Amino acid sequence: QVHLVESGGGSVQAGGSLRLSCAPSGRTFSSYGMGWFRQAPGKEREFVAAISWNGGTTYYADSVKGRFTISRDNTYNAKGTVYLQMNSLKPEDTAVYYCAATEYEMASTRPSAYGYWGQGTQVTVSS
Asked: What percent of the chain has pLDDT over 70?
């Protein structure tokens, strides 16, 4: 049963931009905290960005601060769709990016706080 569907991944050269989307499927996540995580080959899943249920609070990993922007759309049809705008991409940003939802409305930087996960989307940045 799929709850979150990511899209927007792809291949880009260093310095380029991508915009990831995470759309709820079958239900709404408008009252949930949402986050983005990533996992590179041979590495553990790491926190990238998170946003509170109303978009009023955001969190970023130091490695992406100033380059990535998380946002969300809680309108009726969007059901809490979350976006990750990624600018000035670097080869070290290469990973599978996962969207996640937590019942904790203020969101969290800890993967263990999230009960709903998408299938992931690949981002590859070449030098």
From this structure: 100
